């Protein structure tokens, strides 16, 4: 058995891609290992969304080169591959800057890894594969095998046509592509048969999904979710990430009508200022976003909302930032991610003249994060005393303990729940701790296990 070490950076899409690369390399005799030291193959699956991504990769490659040299001195060999969005953006530059790298493979081309490895073995030198489009990728991938847990991910859509002025995704991941419905349904069935009880549908812009259906029509995400809800053994569905512009009536309705669709929505807004939203090319106003939130809540009153925010976008004034704070107060988030604007070369916003000084960005980020974390704490505290269903996913730190998630995606740990991993069980929430909830089982283990 050859050892494969994959280090994953960035989003859930990359986590999914890393698992698929492991599946792809399994027939070549590679099994995953947790440390790079004596690996035969190392893949850095990279993310390019914020600054210094490439520099981080180069310093990681410097460390790997030492391991590779040491291995060679002992008569072994280590193949080093750079995959993901930095690979797409930097391409041949990586091979030029770090000669320890053997392979560079973009997100649309990694199904060709086995072929590239074979080419390398034949002594053809470095291999570079970052051509788009490669919509054949999904067809070429083997079934999802490595590590199907109770909560699985399934990529249904890739790429983005939105061109937000700060974002590299349309350049690194290419235009929108939706996988055919039949392929998605088959993969979901397979995941459920392997023990998945929850599936999160992934896409850079997942609610823009428009996949060729089984009836010759183009299916939107709501229809796909409706069909997936019938998958035997599947108890929960989620999807991420969504764009406000693509939040259609039928998708909002799905939150009311489809029981297995969890009451959680990650709906990035980025800013609460109309001027900044326009400069970001987000194609909606703050009021339109708030109206959308209202409609989602009418459909599913208990829905937990999450978002992404950028502070310090070029030209952002104190008043613009205050508008973001007001929007956050108006919505009340259960969870959120916030970032300082980082200029990504090649994107329109990077060329804007009014860049914001770092100390201003820091202060705004701190204020925003304090507000968001107070909202998160309030949301979690509001769950204390309630009985929530929890899908237990893995063992906890303490003996016999298990960790799972509520419908609202909060992590919960419960003593004595280890035998319930892979099940959805009612749990009484005793307390909200800083990063998780403490739960107790509502019935004795024996009673749960006979059901
Ligand atoms: N600077 C800061 N944050 C960014 N994001 C994307 N591009 C940038 C950037 N250039 C954030 C957005 C997006 C999330 C995935 O990353 O908030 O929703
Ligand atoms: Fe980037 Fe905007 Fe597309 Fe999201 S919607 S991936 S932020 S371009």
Please outline what is shown here:
The chain has helices at residues 12-25, 53-73, 84-90, 92-97, 113-121, 137-140, 169-172, 181-193, 221-228, 249-257, 274-279, 286-299, 318-331, 358-381, 445-450, and strands at residues 2-8, 30-32, 41-46, 79-83, 103-105, 127-129, 151-155, 157-158, 177-178, 198-202, 210-212, 218-220, 236-240, 264-266, 304-311, 335-340, 387-395, 402-405, 411-414, 424-432, 437-441. By secondary structure, it is α/β, with parallel strands linked by helices. It has four domains: 2-133, Rossmann fold (3-Layer(aba) Sandwich), CATH 3.40.50.12160; 148-262, Transcription Regulator spoIIAA; 296-381, Transcription Regulator spoIIAA (2-Layer Sandwich), CATH 3.30.750; 387-450, Nucleic acid-binding proteins (OB fold (Dihydrolipoamide Acetyltransferase, E2P)), CATH 2.40.50.140.
Structure report:
This protein has 451 residues and is α/β, with parallel strands linked by helices. It has helices at residues 12-25, 53-73, 84-90, 92-97, 113-121, 137-140, 169-172, 181-193, 221-228, 249-257, 274-279, 286-299, 318-331, 358-381, 445-450; strands at residues 2-8, 30-32, 41-46, 79-83, 103-105, 127-129, 151-155, 157-158, 177-178, 198-202, 210-212, 218-220, 236-240, 264-266, 304-311, 335-340, 387-395, 402-405, 411-414, 424-432, 437-441. It folds into 4 domains: 2-133, Rossmann fold; 148-262, Transcription Regulator spoIIAA, CATH 3.30.750; 296-381, Transcription Regulator spoIIAA, CATH 3.30.750; 387-450, OB fold (Dihydrolipoamide Acetyltransferase, E2P) (Beta Barrel), CATH 2.40.50.140. The protein contains 15 helices and 21 strands. The strands form 6 sheets. It has a 6-stranded parallel β-sheet, with helices on both faces. The longest helix has 24 residues, at 358-381. The protein is globular, with a radius of gyration of 23 Å. The mean pLDDT is 91. The protein binds 5'-deoxyadenosine and iron/sulfur cluster.
């Amino acid at each position: 058995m050859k050892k494969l070490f994959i280090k994953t950076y960035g989003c859930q899409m990359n986590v999914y891609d890393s698992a698929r690369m492991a599946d792809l390399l399994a027939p070549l005799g590679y099994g995953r290992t947790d440390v790079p030291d004596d690996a035969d193959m190392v893949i850095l699956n990279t993310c390019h969304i914020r600054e210094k991504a490439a520099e981080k990769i180069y310093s990681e490659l410097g460390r790997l080169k030492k391991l590779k040299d040491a291995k060679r001195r002992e008569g072994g060999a280590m193949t080093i591959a750079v995959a993901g969005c930095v690979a797409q953006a930097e391409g041949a530059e990586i091979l030029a800057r770090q000669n320890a790298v053997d392979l560079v493979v973009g997100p649309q081309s990694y199904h060709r890894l086995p072929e590239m490895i074979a080419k390398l073995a034949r002594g053809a030198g470095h291999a570079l594969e970052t051509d788009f489009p490669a919509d054949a990728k999904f067809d070429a991938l083997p079934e999802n095998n490595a590590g199907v847990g109770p909560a699985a991910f399934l990529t249904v859509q890739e790429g983005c046509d939105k061109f937000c002025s700060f974002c590299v995704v349309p350049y690194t991941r290419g235009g929108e592509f939706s996988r055919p419905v039949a392929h998605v349904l088959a993969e979901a069935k397979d995941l459920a048969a392997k023990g998945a009880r929850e599936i999160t549908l992934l896409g850079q812009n997942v609610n823009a999904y428009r996949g060729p259906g089984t009836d010759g029509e183009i299916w939107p995400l709501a229809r796909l979710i409706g069909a997936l809800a019938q998958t035997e053994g599947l108890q929960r569905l989620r999807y991420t990430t969504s764009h406000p512009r693509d939040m259609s009536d039928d998708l909002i309705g799905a939150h009311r009508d489809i029981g297995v669709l969890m009451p959680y929505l990650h709906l990035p807004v980025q800013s609460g200022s109309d001027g900044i939203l326009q400069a970001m090319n987000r194609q909606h106003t703050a009021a339109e976003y708030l109206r959308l939130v209202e409609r989602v809540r009418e459909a599913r009153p208990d829905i937990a909302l999450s978002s992404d925010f950028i502070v310090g976008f070029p030209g952002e004034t104190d008043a613009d930032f205050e508008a973001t704070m007001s929007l956050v107060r108006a919505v009340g988030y259960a969870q959120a991610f916030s970032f300082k604007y980082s200029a990504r070369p090649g994107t329109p916003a990077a060329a804007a003249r009014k860049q914001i000084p770092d100390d201003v960005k820091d202060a705004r980020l701190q204020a925003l994060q304090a507000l968001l974390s107070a909202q998160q704490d309030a949301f979690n505290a509001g769950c204390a005393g309630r009985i929530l269903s929890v899908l237990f996913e893995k063992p906890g730190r303490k003996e016999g303990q298990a960790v799972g998630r509520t419908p609202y995606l909060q992590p919960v740990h419960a003593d004595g729940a280890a035998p319930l991993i892979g099940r959805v069980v009612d749990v009484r929430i005793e307390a909200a701790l800083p990063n998780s909830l403490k739960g107790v089982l509502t019935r004795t283990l024996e009673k749960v296990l006979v059901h």
